[in-house]
Amino acid sequence: MGEIKDIRKTKRLQTIVILVFVCGLTVWSAIGTDFSFYEVFSGIGLISNFVFLDLLPPDVSASNSLLDAILETLYMGFVGMVIGAGIALVLSFLAASTTTPHPVIQVVVRAFTSIIRNIPGLIWALILVASYGIGVTVGTLSLILGSIGFLTRVFADTLEEIDTGKIEALHATGSNYFQILAQGVFPQFLPGFVAWSLYNLELNIRASTIIGMVGGGGIGFAIQKGIKLFQYKEVSMAIILVLILILSTEFLTSKIRERII
């Protein structure tokens, strides 16, 4: 009984120490950022005035002119997903411990895709604007790079979780590397490949709006232009169209995933 009490006291003390540390870190961070609840609540009136007087109601008549921008956003997200998934498919087979031809290749590929993944799409867009100028090419390339980094990681993790029993059986029958991939690996990997690719499409649609605001084209660029020209009611219409596009994409991709999985 004494040992149990000591363990409980130790856990209780650890919990208290963690809570004190988190509280102290929160206060320190708030001081460092000059955050205060007074400023938050004092700005509610100004936010309300902006939303209900300047932003609303949306300018419905602008929806026709925004349709092309919405379609550009959809095209960028889809192309970024397809090309990114295709490249990531190849890289993931090199990056997964269950399918890589050599451990050195696995380390190199994982390091390369980790660098790509940890550079935000916004930064990629700013870099690419300097080379390609403002437009959908920049947005599409940024989404492709982001998709490669993200999908290579999740595809490789999926490959490492497959059942290796069939792979070992194919090894025993003398099958070569490509026969093992085609017959033992890919059938197990396919549902995860489709599911993660569709999820990446959702991420691309969201990201393309932000990327567009720094010159990547699409609806994000239209929103940025509207803000600069103080056309806030047109901006609110663009935001509504973005929400419709995102929710529609999520609904469709979730239905497809349900049928596959």
Automatic annotation (TrEMBL):
Pfam families: BPD_transp_1. Belongs to the binding-protein-dependent transport system permease family. It comes from the Bacteria. It is a multi-pass membrane protein. Its main location: membrane. Keywords: Cell membrane, Membrane, Transmembrane, Transmembrane helix, Transport. Signal peptide: none annotated. One of its GO terms (molecular function) is ABC-type phosphonate transporter activity. One of its GO terms (cellular component) is plasma membrane. It is found in: Cell membrane. This is Phosphonate transport system permease protein. Residues 70-253 form the ABC transmembrane type-1 domain. The chain crosses the membrane at residues 12-31, 69-94, 123-156, 177-199, 205-223, 235-253. CDD domains: TM_PBP2 (cd06261).
